[in-house]
Design a protein that fits this description.
Layout (H helix, E strand, L loop, with lengths): L2 H17 L10 H23 L4 H10 L4 H47 L4 H14 L4 H13 L25 H17 L2 E8 L6 H11 L5 H13 L15 H6 L6 E6 L3 E7 L7 H8 L4 E7 L4 H6 L4 H11 L4 E7 L8 H17 L7 E5 L14 H7 L7 H6 L14 E8 L5 E6 L4 E3 L3 E5 L4 E9 L2 E3 L1 E3 L3 E7 L11 E3 L7 E2 L1 E8 L6 E2 L2 E7 L2 E14 L6 E4 L3 E2 L4 E8 L14 E2 L11 E6 L2 E11 L2
Parallel strand pairs: 1-3, 1-4, 4-5, 5-6
Antiparallel strand pairs: 2-3, 7-8, 7-15, 8-14, 9-13, 10-11, 10-15, 11-12, 11-14, 16-24, 17-23, 17-26, 18-22, 19-20, 19-25, 20-21, 20-23, 25-26
Helix pairs in contact: 1-2, 1-3, 2-4, 4-5, 4-6
Bound molecules: guanosine-5'-triphosphate (GTP).
The site of guanosine-5'-triphosphate (GTP) has 24 residues, from helix 8.
């Protein structure tokens, strides 16, 4: 379950549980009282389901504490819930009314037809039959057929007296035909060009570079964290002797992360600059959690690399085995071309310009070697802890920096990130990156839309498998929306499906245009800095979107010229550092599935059809050894 989600769920729980009967100094209105009662019910339900899903009470409590001060958001959530229920009830009443009217109409026709069919009512028969054929025109044949059945039908089948399913269970309806939806989406995208445009940003870098601190402090500087919450984080982190991590607490929400002082999973937040609405994916820097980092990077448009400028620390992160280079290579391989490099902790080297220039020079060279264009990379000196040069350069800490730096702040650079173009006419592809039990009897799936458009009420296929499900709600940037397009990081709430069919790595798509499945495919790969050359049959871990599966590089087809793709050698014996090659990749069954089990296929597309669905990463023994694109699906 997503940590982010636990925290969000706990918003309600925390407020109501902790403050039941004592809402601080504030008097509650009757409406709020009612909301609180409803919320408490939710709380019990949520605690129950969190326990069922294996969370211990300590973690739940921790998450509760985390949201302690978010009173306004809680009340707002509850009011929204009430409003949704009201609308659903109104819709239900309108539908029942409509059904009743239809039934009355059918009954009338039935009576007429029955009179017409009755041998004892000859006059009526004639006139009735004439009446139907002459007045009911095209609909008459169906109606007459129904009339016969109608007389035998059990009225309960029409559900007139039924209370119907719980309001929450009412199946969602698609509000727009596809063409109309596309039209509306195009207009909205055009309109957003002049307003705030959305981008998603993955925050990467070596362990302890200050990524979470930077994000926590930035959220505070931008007013997304209030004073109460800041104090709570400060107190909480001091209490366990981790005071220097108080800013990181905002992002590192689980007990284990807080106690260990490291990020372990992707944390999602959003912030807003004058021209951009940014979804932040804070990735772990520790090499043990690279799979989680890859999952975050595969959902991002841009990257923010944080490096630690302190003596010896930059070097440790940048040399072989450090995460700075590996993260840069990974994001580039996953298609991210824009990157901001925040050179952090300059306070540790007395804000020396020479240190900044030295680091900038080394990274710039590596960026060029790794295929980043200089025009799409930018550097900024910052002090995350004291908030220097994030939003402004005010205060005594910033004075030393201002002596030699007059360029943009971090927010200025974020505000200039180029939003991705959206391919809304492509078939929908939604690779699942996270699954958890949502509220309101739906299952929640997090991920990024890789092509197309999705709307509430749509039925989607889940690949691999034969299952489908209905989209009940769509959440984007913490708001419920009717539809969402390519490039958006969203949470889809699905109903009508057994959760066993919802797995990380599965892809949702339209039933009429399903994504291909593959167990063997041809890929063009670029070999990274490997210590042991790759031979045919090498066992590897294949990463595709948020998912990793066992595989082997089953055939080495050719080595290629990196510049023009021409074949240098067919059937090479080995692939060494820096080689570009065409290979066959074959999925293997996992160690748990037994010796004779066949590998489960994964949803994949060629790079030519869908860039995001056609990228793969290859790792071996905890090291990323290659990145590639899918050329052809073999089987
Ligand atoms: N002196 C100084 N320390 C900082 C600064 N920014 C972060 N730190 C410290 O660096 C340590 C690591 O910070 P985090 O934010 O947890 O680092 P991280 O990159 O998110 O760590 P992982 O996600 O676990 O890789 C903490 O002790 C911070 O207080 C800074 O600007 N100056």
């Amino acid at each position: 379950m997503s940590r982010h989600r636990i925290v969000r769920n706990m918003n309600i729980q925390d407020e109501l549980d902790a403050d039941a009967g004592d809402f601080g100094e504030e008097e509650l209105t009757p409406e709020q009282e009612e909301q609180m009662a409803y919320g408490l019910e939710q709380v019990r339900h949520i605690i129950g389901s969190e326990r069922e899903s294996g969370l211990d009470d300590e973690t739940i409590k921790n998450a509760l504490w985390d949201q302690y001060f978010d009173v306004e958001r809680t009340v707002q959530l509850l009011l929204e819930e009430q409003e949704r229920r009201r609308i659903a009830q109104e819709r239900k009443a309108a539908k029942q009314q409509e059904k009743a009217e239809k039934l009355a109409q059918h009954k009338k026709v039935a009576e007429t037809a029955s009179r017409a069919a009755s041998p004892s009512a000859k006059g009526a028969n004639k006139s009735g039959a004439r009446g139907i054929t002459s007045t009911k025109v095209t609909a008459a044949p169906t109606l007459i057929r129904n009339v016969v059945d109608q007389r035998e039908l059990d009225m309960s089948g029409l559900n007139l007296n039924d209370d119907g399913p719980a309001v929450d269970e009412e199946p969602p309806k698609m509000t727009m035909a596809r063409e109309k939806l596309l039209e509306e989406a195009r207009k909205a995208i055009e309109a957003s060009e002049s307003r705030k445009r959305g981008v998603s940003l993955v925050v990467i870098g070596h362990v302890d570079a200050g990524k979470s601190t930077l994000m926590g402090r930035l959220l505070y500087e931008l007013g997304r964290i209030d004073e109460k919450r800041r104090i709570a984080n400060e107190r909480g982190s001091n209490k366990i002797g981790k005071g220097s991590f108080s800013w990181a607490w905002e992002l590192d929400g689980t007990q284990e992360e807080r106690e260990r002082g490291i990020t372990m999973d992707i944390a999602q937040q959003s912030l807003s600059t004058p021209h951009r609405q940014i979804t932040i994916l804070d990735a772990p820097g520790h090499k043990d959690f690279i799979p989680n980092m890859i999952s975050g990077a595969s959902q991002a448009d841009c990257a923010l690399l944080v490096v630690d400028a302190s003596t010896g620390e930059f070097e440790a992160g940048f040399e072989r085995g450090g995460q700075t280079r590996e993260h840069l290579l990974l994001v580039r391989s996953l298609g991210v071309s824009q990157v901001i490099i925040a050179i952090n902790k300059l306070d540790m080297v007395q804000w020396e310009q020479s240190r900044y220039d030295e680091i900038l020079g080394q990274i710039q060279l590596f960026l060029l070697q790794s295929g980043f264009q200089q025009s799409k990379t930018s550097f900024v000196p910052v002090g995350a802890m004291s908030g220097v040069n994030l939003v402004n350069r005010r205060g005594p800490d910033a004075a030393a920096l201002s002596r030699w730096y007059s360029g943009p702040t971090l927010v200025d650079l974020l505000d200039m990130l180029k939003p991705p173009s959206r391919n809304i006419t492509a078939p929908l592809r939604f690779p699942i990156s996270n699954v958890f039990k949502g509220q309101r009897s739906a299952y929640a799936l997090q991920g990024r839309i890789c092509g197309g458009i999705v709307q509430v009420g749509e039925r989607l296929r889940i690949l691999p498998g034969d299952e489908s499900a209905l989209v009940k709600y769509i959440e984007h940037e913490e708001e419920n929306v009717e539809w969402a397009t390519d490039g958006s990081n969203v949470t889809l709430y699905l109903t009508g499906v057994d959760p066993v069919h919802l797995n990380v790595g599965s892809v949702l798509c339209p039933p009429s245009d399903v994504v291909p499945l593959a167990t063997v495919f041809t890929a063009r790969v670029l070999i990274f800095d490997v210590s042991v050359p790759i031979t045919a049959g090498a066992s590897v871990e294949l990463f595709h979107q948020a998912h990793d599966v066992p595989a082997s590089i089953s055939k080495l087809l050719a080595t290629l010229d990196r510049a023009n793709g021409a074949v240098i050698r067919k059937n090479p014996r080995v692939l060494t550092k820096g080689a570009s090659a065409e290979v066959h990749i074959t999925l293997r069954s996992s160690a748990y599935s037994g010796p004779n089990a066949r590998p489960r296929p994964i949803p994949l597309e060629t790079f030519a059809v869908n860039k995001e669905m056609g990228r793969v990463l290859i790792r071996r023994e905890g090291e990323t050894i290659a990145a590639g694109v899918v050329l052809e699906i073999v089987s």
